[in-house]
Amino acid sequence: MTDVESLAKYDAVKLLIFDDAYKAAKYVFNTVQNSLDLGTTEDKNATNVYVTKIMQTVTDFDPEYADEVALEYLKLLQASMPL
To answer: What pTM, to 2 d.p., does this model score?
Structure first.
């Protein structure tokens, strides 16, 4: 297991421990936003892979919770877009 995979599993466990779909989605949203705001193209691609690994691990443990997190994430994304 690579360091990135280990860290992704750690963050996935953190999201599961939150047991709060909004809080978990906000954590993921902030991670992605920081990469978009501050990162290079390489950083953005790495963040995409990283977040995908996190959410796949969450899905493996609790698919319903993962769906709730994804829905909350989409709501945050929609709210962040200018009209």
So the answer is: 0.88
Helices marked H in the chain — which ranges? 3-18, 21-38, 41-61, 63-80
Distance, CA of 31 to CA of 47 (rounded, Å): 8
Q: Tell me the CB-side half-sphere exposure of residue 36, using CA atoms within 13 A.
A: 9
Q: Which of 48, 38, 50 is nearest to 10 (CA)?
A: 50
Which residue ranges make up each domain of the chain?
Answer: 3-80
What are the tens digits of pLDDT across the range 40-75?
888 888 889 999 999 999 999 999 999 999 999 999
State how far the Cα of 29 lies from the Cα of 55, in Å rounded to an integer.
Answer: 12
**N- to C-terminal Cα separation, the chain:** 43
